[in-house]
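Review form for a predicted model. The reviewer records the input and the model, then writes brief findings.
Reviewer: anonymous (R2)
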Amino acid sequence: MLDQTDRAILNRVQDDLPLTSHPYAAVAEELGLSEAELLTRLTRMKEDRVITRFGPFFDAAAMGGAFCLCAMAVPAESFETVLTKVNAHPEVAHNYERTHRLNMWFVLATETPEGIKGTADAIEQETGIKVLCFPKLQEFFIGFRVAA
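Model under review:
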């Protein structure tokens, strides 16, 4: 169960973190908490899977890298094995199961545009399954935020 303090933390950290040497201390002070309590609560919410990921979102393309949406048609009996192999790649940013012939969708984020092909090729070699790559044609900023 989330209490009001947990909700305040979640609402606050979705916006940004201060660019200071101690960003958690600054956020904790804003919320009337100690840094230790803030970190304890964030850790608990992550362990309880209230939040599944907590970290920055970088624009890979602005830094010389690339993003690419990818899909695979994975046999149901091999899904968990393939999932483990795909997720072992640090370039895999997200991975989703879908009820469709193309039942595994994931995002690759690489340091260079050439890294997309290299990672997709490696996944194909490891799994024996074709990786379909859908490069970004245009970016739309949607400003996704969830009120806790």
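Findings: The radius of gyration is 19 Å.
Further findings: Residues 73 and 102 are 4 Å apart (CA to CA).
Recommendation: see findings above.
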